[in-house]
Specification:
The structure is a single chain. By secondary structure, the protein is an alpha/beta fold. About 45% of the residues lie in helices and about 15% in strands. The chain contains 13 helices and twelve strands. The strands form two sheets. Strands 2-1-3-4-5-11 form a six-stranded parallel beta sheet. The chain has a six-stranded mixed beta sheet with strand order 7-6-8-9-10-12, sandwiched between helices. Strand 3, helix 8 (about 135-140) and strand 4 (about 145-150) form a beta-alpha-beta unit.
């Protein structure tokens, strides 16, 4: 027969409510009584019924991390999992279960969130930027359900969000090359509609404009975030005249293809072309020479998302909209 809270109370010579207060870290119980009860709990190998405690408090101790699924997501967008593991570190310490949920579309995401709210199956939701729409944020705000968005949405909303300042990240990349004498900068970006890519490019162009450095339209290329596409785009750059003396690659996946194209054209990095990319994770260590990177630190972004959601759960009226974790340069062998 399993040990109950009444068994612990009887062995400790206290009431069941006192044991309950000790389990819930109540400041009303003296340190002496707390230590005594905890010693009995350990002696009897008592395991609290977490589900029953949470039910009594109307809490699930569960957080949902919601994103949109896509084919080969682990390869095409591994950054989601870096953010996820950052959130998991915090929630694990706070005894929360973290549930990763894929939605097939924004409509599906809306239905998932509606079900979570109706069934009270989670205490809060973290929404990755792909799973955000005006309809979804209105639902969460109307129901006053604790949530935080990862990434500043492209529409006006009162929802809480955190993000990394990708415009500043672009400025940092361009400034680093500029300080090393690079004046013919090229940018290999993601899809034209990709907001993060466009913000990083905006930062590059903003820095170039401040330094009166013209950037040729032929040096600004966009494509799918794949190794093959990076190779194709870099090949176009390297058959232009004149060729750039510095390339900024928007992500570390297409960067693999960019470096391959540079080598096949008989050019040396960094002697002929300096090269810099964003994101130290996950592919930068596959590139030879090791690339200088603008480190976005998505793990830290996940940590901050979790911390802020816990604040919102504790104080639902809290309103958080901010940029965090300023990007930094990790200098390696691909720049002069």
């Amino acid at each position: 027969m399993s040990i109950t809270i009444r068994d612990v109370a009887k062995a400790a010579g206290v009431s069941p409510s006192t044991v309950s207060k000790v389990l819930n870290h109540s400041p009303l119980i003296s340190a002496q009584t707390t230590n005594h009860v905890n010693a009995i709990i350990e002696e009897l190998h008592y395991i609290p019924n977490i589900r029953a405690r949470n039910f009594a408090k109307q809490k699930t101790r569960t957080i949902v991390f919601l994103t949109l699924s896509e084919p080969h997501m682990a390869l095409m967008n591994p950054y989601i999992f870096e953010i996820f593991t950052g959130t998991e570190e915090i929630f694990h310490k706070k005894d929360y279960m973290l549930q990763f949920v894929n939605a097939l579309s924004l409509d599906d995401a809306y239905q998932v969130i509606q079900k979570i709210i109706t069934t009270k199956s989670a205490d809060g939701i973290i929404l990755h930027g792909y799973a955000v729409s005006p309809e979804i944020t209105r639902l969460l705000l109307t129901q006053q359900f604790p949530h935080i968005l990862i990434g500043k949405p492209c529409f006006e909303t009162s929802s809480s969000w955190i993000d990394i300042n990708n415009i500043v990240a672009g400025e940092i990349a361009a400034g680093f090359l500029y300080d090393r004498g690079i004046r013919k900068m090229a940018f290999v970006g993601g899809r034209k509609q990709d907001r993060i890519s466009q913000m990083r490019l905006h930062g590059v162009r903003q820095f170039a404009a401040q330094r009166l450095i013209p950037i040729s339209p032929e040096y600004l290329l966009y494509g799918e975030p794949t190794i093959e596409e990076g190779y194709k785009l870099a090949t176009r750059l390297l058959t232009s005249s004149p060729i750039p003396d510095g390339i900024i690659c928007e992500n570390s996946i297409s960067a693999v293809g960019v470096v391959k194209a540079i080598r096949e054209h008989g050019l040396s990095i960094p002697k002929d072309i300096s090269f810099i990319c964003f994101d130290n994770y996950p592919f930068s260590f596959m590139i030879d020479p090791l690339p200088t990177v603008v480190d976005i630190n998505l793990y830290s972004l996940g940590i901050e998302a979790a911390k802020n959601l816990l604040k919102i759960i504790k104080c639902p009226q809290m309103h958080i909209q901010s940029y965090i974790t300023l990007p930094s340069i990790i200098q390696r062998d691909s720049t002069k």
